[in-house]
């Protein structure tokens, strides 16, 4: 008895017609039952368990990390990222300081203690658009994170994209308890929150 069933004809026809093919999981138990894999809705992607564990292990929220970074370097936060580093679980924060320089601050994700801090000496021309967008923003990184977390789980990343379809937006990533990742866009002027399409970076064709 065959244990694997390959369905090719329908998929090939759909591709020739320019349609979208939905992956189908076929059971090898011989029961004959098939079920389509659940496709994530717009703005939602399945997240791996490592990122879910990191979100659960963090004791410092994104807004708290932003506050701690600004205590170390007064200015404006342009990005936050929850990550594994040599000291353990950390928040990496990018800050445009009041001194006009870009600073990178690494914080312990359990205590908010500053672990590392240095000035980014890259060519400032690379940050010109980001600098302008950040200075003009009415919604800061902490506020964007709070808006996203209110309905969409734990924030794992906040970034000011100064060239998202010719405008600046806060891109916020969250993960819910079931391991689903959400990508959200927040207008830095109005604070309006929208759900980004899945794989949005490739959707400008």
UniProtKB/TrEMBL annotation:
Signal sequence bounds: 1-23
Renumbered residue ranges of the record's region Disordered: 27-56, 177-205
Protein name: PepSY domain-containing protein
Keyword Cell membrane: no
Domain PepSY: residue ranges: 61-118, 144-192
Sorted UniProt keywords: Signal
Coiled coil (UniProt feature): none
UniProt keyword Transmembrane present: no
Positions with biased composition (Basic and acidic residues): 43-56
Pfam families: PepSY
Biased composition (Low complexity): 27-42
């Amino acid at each position: 008895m065959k244990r694997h069933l390959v369905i090719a004809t329908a998929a090939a026809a759909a591709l020739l017609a320019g349609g979208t093919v939905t992956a189908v999981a076929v059971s090898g138990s011989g029961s004959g039952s098939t079920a389509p894999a659940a496709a994530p809705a717009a703005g939602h992607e399945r997240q791996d368990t490592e990122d879910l564990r990191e979100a659960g292990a963090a004791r410092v929220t994104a807004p708290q990390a932003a506050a701690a970074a600004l205590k170390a370097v007064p200015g404006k936060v342009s990005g936050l990222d929850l990550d594994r580093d040599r000291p353990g679980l950390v928040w990496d924060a990018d800050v445009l300081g009041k001194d006009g320089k870009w600073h990178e601050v690494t914080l312990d994700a359990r205590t908010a203690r500053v672990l590392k801090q240095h000035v980014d000496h890259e060519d400032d021309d690379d940050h010109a658009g980001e600098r302008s967008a950040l200075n003009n923003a009415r919604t800061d990184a902490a506020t964007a994170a709070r808006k996203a977390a209110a309905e969409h789980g734990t924030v794992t990343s906040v970034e000011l994209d100064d060239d998202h379809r010719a405008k600046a937006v806060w891109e916020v990533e969250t993960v819910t308890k079931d391991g689903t990742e959400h990508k959200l866009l927040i207008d830095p002027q109005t604070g309006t929150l929208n759900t980004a399409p899945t794989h949005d970076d490739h959707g400008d064709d």
